[in-house]
Amino acid sequence: MFKTSIRNKLIVLLLLITIVPFGTSIVITYLYTKESLKDEFVQENVNLLYQGKLNLEGYVGELKNLTLSFYNNIDFMNYLRNPSQDDDDYLAKESVKNVILTILYAEKNINRVNIAVEEDNQNVSVSKTSGVVFSPVVKNLYKESYEKAMNNSNFIYIEPMHVLQKDSAVKDKREKKEVIRLHRALIDIPSNKLLGYISLDIAPDQIIDISEKLYVKDKEEFYILSPEGELIFRSNSEVSETEEWVTSVLKSTETSGTMEWEKDSFRGLMMYDKLSESAGGWILVKRIPYTSVFESALSVAKINIMFGVIGLCLVIMATFLVSFKITSPIRVLLQNIKKVEEGNMNVYFDSLGNDEIGILGERFIQMIGKINHLINREYKLELENKTNQLKVLQSQLNPHFLYNSLQSIGTLALKNNVPQVYTLVTHLSKIMRYGMNIDEDLVPLTKEIDFTKAFLLLQKERFGDQFEYSLQFDKEVLTIEVPKMILQPIIENYFKHGFNSSDESIGQLMIMGRKESNQLVITIHDNGKGISENRLNEIYQSFDKEKQKIDTDGTNIGLRNVYFRLKLYFDGRANFHIQNHQDGGLLVILRLPIETGGGMVEGNYYR
């Protein structure tokens, strides 16, 4: 009993599936959390670095577009091609001034614009603190930068950040400012002839603003390198361009990547992403010390371990609670189920609680009560009523002594040459023989038709020309089984209530049978006086009464008998309908489900 008890199995199982996983999780929580958060942290920073790359490329792209805007200005381009001819051309110089001023004020961070015309060494410059100046080119001023721009596939070169004096006459360091200088070679498309160079002095405010959004101060480091390894931006002023990690990043052939670095007094992760060559080919580098990487991992690991220990304790407590408290009412249910298995349906126990198991216990008691009710009041009574109703109906027509007496009368009629009497006695005996066989509940429809025909022949003999009948049944329905003597009560009801022998009109009764889909449809139509609406309602109301109770006046016992027998035999799937026919008389329609099929017989109707 101890080994098979659900309580003991549940305790062992719950302890195994909780202590082992929880204990293991506590051991590996720190390591797993550390690595998972590290990967997540790296991915977030890679995405952030990529977004910064897109922002910088977009900004540099805007600046590049400014240096191309004057290509559509014919006067300006003519000046670049041949400046010596336009020395005295006032309109040409005005055009040059307009172009260079437009570029200067197109972006708020542009402080100075300089155009060095290759032809005749002419130079045009303007700044936000001075007007447009036409002068000779200062030799070797930007020679090295111009050569780098010319040799670049995109004809641009961006110098690293420089510190310039705002005014040479002012020596106060507060007047110094940083600028980034963009040089572009001006090519006469499509001849590839060099026309000159344009240089923009750009305040790094926008670049610094973008950069500061890409790292956390005092916890992370961020740098922008030129393709030559020059530091364009650095968050840590103590880092120089000669450090080994700079060379390592420059040698990388990948456009982006992540590496672990443990040199130059730095221990941590290093991520980089390169801008396209058309945007200057800068390299964005972000360095994150391990202390920052695993700071959140340590906090999360401690929280996970703490909750793991708390959860383990709660699970152990819950295991014993489930095992002892919840399994107790289950045992009560099990004991009562065993009683039901042994045939004892009188089960009862106190409430098992207000939870799901308590509700299950209440429903179990209700279910057993309903089963008892169905067994004692429904199932048994229905079977009893079925047998009793058949016997009551049959007992009206099957006294054994009467059948023997009829045989004697028929024999005497033949001896006295009265064949008509013999025929009538034969029909009557056929009726009696059909009714005497109480072992049959369902009979083929052809037997029921034979019985009905014998009954109607007797009525025909009784009323003569005042009564006519017709039996019409499709041959495919003759073998379908129907409840025995299901038509006789309806026909007898016609003679009792609908047929008037004193009336000069001829009474007519038509009985038809056909198959519709999976149903047998039998219609019984007479030309009698019909039935009043009140009486029809009373009949239908009687169908709703308790089926053991029979009307005291007995006026519709036959119809009730037919209705409840159909209900018992076919479990409510049959239909019994009574109505006044539009041409007069009463119409009764029976719709019975076809339970079994049958073969064909000769003839398709009886008449």
TrEMBL record:
It catalyses: ATP + protein L-histidine = ADP + protein N-phospho-L-histidine. It is an enzyme of class 2 (transferase). It is found in: Cell membrane. This is histidine kinase. It holds the Pfam family HATPase_c. Its EC number is 2.7.13.3. It is a multi-pass membrane protein. The chain crosses the membrane at residues 12-32, 305-324. Residues 374-596 form the Histidine kinase domain. Residues 222-254 form the PH domain. Keywords: ATP-binding, Cell membrane, Kinase, Membrane, Nucleotide-binding, Phosphoprotein, Transferase, Transmembrane, Transmembrane helix, Two-component regulatory system. The keyword Kinase applies. InterPro entries: Bact_2-comp_sensor_kinase, HAMP_dom, HATPase_C_sf, HATPase_dom, His_kinase_dom, PH_domain, Sig_transdc_His_kin_internal. GO terms for molecular function: kinase activity. Residues 324-376 form the HAMP domain. It comes from Metabacillus elymi.
